């Protein structure tokens, strides 16, 4: 029998739709009444650690969740399942992946349809997540996201559709496993990454998206207290030339700038050697982050800074996304 800790945090999976179709938190989380012991194979211990829609989730709440999971691992739990709203699920999942050092399975899930809607996917995803957390194959694989029968890594999964139940996808690399009625199968090797220890989260790390004709205006209005900036750059990792004065002034202020691509697939690299091209940006000191999307790169920058990393150590930590 596996002892699994369930941590409910809120989101559509625990919400109810009213007669007009508007969705809001339920008076009582319907998942609390679900009997999902998988025919006596698992014993669930359930906590509502918080109950918020995921747009209300902050890095501070992610840290609280991370600490609770580490404590559960230290006190003998065999696995952890987290239910979460889908809007920021990928950010929480990646934050946990970067900060939890235990190798017990940690699985996060959510739902696209609330508990009383036709075709509600919550209970089913919850069951799949429990199955995964109770499986031997999930050990040592970092934080996993289970939705719609698929298993994805926290590092690369992203929400791709506003309503479709098949919203969670892993661009470029694909899912790492599959949940069937009775089994959990993994079909990709996972890359391990060492977790870092943090006891607080650094604030004022911003995310900007590049666009045709972008200039330095947004860089110039960043507050004095800015600790870091992530830019979703164009294509393989290029920016319009008019952004360069803004980039230069941030680098002169020792504010780390991390660059990812705004493209859905692929990695950012210093390929182009023209004004604003990746070669020039890298020479200026911009950190290229390979394979993460903007919101994940921001989480990684927050975790790195909160761990006290600076300079080349921070650059190595942030850019080392694939190897
Ligand atoms: N499907 C969902 O869970 C979306 C909801 N707005 C949330 O993230 O809390």
UniProtKB/TrEMBL annotation:
> Which residue positions are annotated as catalytic?
12, 86
EC number of the protein = 3.5.1.1
Membrane-crossing residues? none
Query: What range(s) does the L-asparaginase N-terminal domain occupy?
Result: 3-190
Q: Which PROSITE patterns match?
A: ASN_GLN_ASE_1, ASN_GLN_ASE_2, ASN_GLN_ASE_3
Q: Name one GO biological process term.
A: asparagine metabolic process
A Pfam family that the UniProt record links to this protein:
Asparaginase
Query: GO MF annotations for this entry?
Result: asparaginase activity
Q: Where is the Asparaginase/glutaminase C-terminal domain?
A: 204-316
**Which EC class does it fall in?**
hydrolase
Query: Binding of substrate: at which residues?
Result: 54, 86-87
InterPro entries from the xrefs? Answer: AsnASE_II (IPR004550), Asp/glu_Ase-like_sf (IPR036152), Asparaginase/glutaminase-like (IPR006034), Asparaginase/glutaminase_AS1 (IPR020827), Asparaginase/glutaminase_AS2 (IPR027475), Asparaginase_C (IPR040919), L-asparaginase_C (IPR027473), L-asparaginase_N (IPR027474)
Catalysed reactions listed for this entry? L-asparagine + H2O = L-aspartate + NH4(+)
Keywords in UniProt for this one? Hydrolase
PANTHER family assigned to the protein according to its UniProt record, in alphabetical order: 60 KDA LYSOPHOSPHOLIPASE, L-ASPARAGINASE
What family does the entry list? Belongs to the asparaginase 1 family.
Q: What is this protein called?
A: asparaginase
Q: What organism does the record attribute this protein to?
A: Lacticaseibacillus saniviri JCM 17471 = DSM 24301
């Amino acid at each position: 029998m596996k002892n699994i800790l369930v941590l409910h945090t809120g989101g559509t999976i625990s919400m109810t739709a009213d007669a007009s179709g508007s969705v809001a938190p339920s008076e009582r989380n319907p998942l609390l009444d679900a009997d999902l012991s998988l025919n006596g194979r698992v014993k669930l211990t359930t906590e509502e650690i918080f109950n918020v829609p995921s747009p209300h989730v902050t890095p501070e709440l992610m840290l609280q969740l991370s600490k609770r999971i580490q404590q559960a691992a230290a006190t003998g739990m065999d696995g952890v399942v987290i239910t979460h709203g889908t809007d920021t699920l990928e950010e929480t999942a990646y934050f946990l992946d970067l900060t939890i050092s235990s190798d017990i399975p940690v699985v996060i899930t959510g739902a696209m349809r609330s508990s009383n809607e036709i075709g509600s996917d919550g209970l089913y995803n919850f069951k799949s997540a429990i199955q995964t957390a109770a499986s031997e194959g999930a050990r040592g694989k970092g934080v996993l996201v289970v939705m719609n029968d698929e298993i994805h890594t926290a590092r690369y999964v992203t929400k791709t559709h506003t309503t479709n139940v098949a919203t969670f996808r892993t661009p470029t690399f694909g899912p790492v496993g599959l949940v069937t009625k009775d089994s959990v199968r993994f079909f990709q090797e996972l890359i391990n990454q060492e977790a870092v220890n943090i006891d607080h989260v650094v604030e004022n790390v911003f995310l900007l998206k590049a666009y045709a004709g972008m200039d330095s205006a947004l860089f110039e209005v960043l507050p004095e207290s800015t600790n870091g900036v992530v830019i979703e750059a164009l294509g393989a990792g290029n920016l319009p030339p008019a952004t360069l004065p803004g980039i230069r002034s941030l680098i002169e202020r020792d504010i780390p700038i991390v660059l990812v691509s705004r493209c859905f697939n692929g990695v950012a690299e210093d390929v182009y050697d023209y004004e604003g091209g990746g070669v020039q940006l890298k020479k200026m000191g911009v950190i290229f982050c390979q394979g993460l999307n903007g919101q994940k790169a921001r989480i990684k920058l927050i975790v790195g800074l909160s761990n006290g990393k600076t300079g080349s150590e921070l650059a190595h930590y942030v850019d080392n996304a694939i190897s």
